[in-house]
């Protein structure tokens, strides 16, 4: 019998090898965050405020292809959308932004019943859950956790906009709710290349894994479905 002593330092510890189940179609879900006109369209509220939406526009066809691949592989697709109205616009929430360049008031975006709140470029199919959120994180004030656990989901693959705001906020919350989390970097987008890159680096360093759409497509085809979580 071979025995081994416990590692004495952090550097000696070997991380759990989650590769067998993090991307397992039976355990993961593709989470699509805030793909809505106000956040993505050239006719949306943020574009009207001067935000550069070219990255969300360019990313959308790639995300649409990934969603199609997920559906064909029976990976659950979970949709998250934002709505704001007078019942959710607290003074603290509306007053959170500063007065510097690159700020926009949430009151300008995703009002219920407006075209700006509609999905942009991609949309759910019947039976796919749609979570309505009122803050950056998809877990705050929603039933997302219950929806995921009722489906046996253990790992979340985050996509959408904006990378460093609602996508990263939701990803962090997912980890804090004890899910494995990953960022699909080429299926997320921001209004600033630097902000997107910084968020990708932050996720990779502290919160989860960073993958591409092609990575997932390859793993979903090649990876055997595992029987149990280590």
Automatic annotation (TrEMBL):
SUPFAM superfamilies: Isochorismatase-like hydrolases. InterPro entries: Isochorismatase-like_dom, Isochorismatase-like_hydrls, Isochorismatase-like_sf. Residues 28-215 form the Isochorismatase-like domain. Transmembrane segments: none annotated. GO terms for molecular function: hydrolase activity. Keywords: Hydrolase. Pfam families: Isochorismatase. PANTHER family: ISOCHORISMATASE-LIKE DOMAIN-CONTAINING PROTEIN (PTHR43540:SF6), PEROXYUREIDOACRYLATE/UREIDOACRYLATE AMIDOHYDROLASE-RELATED (PTHR43540). This is Cysteine hydrolase. It comes from Rhodococcus rhodochrous. The lineage of its organism: Bacteria, Bacillati, Actinomycetota, Actinomycetes, Mycobacteriales.
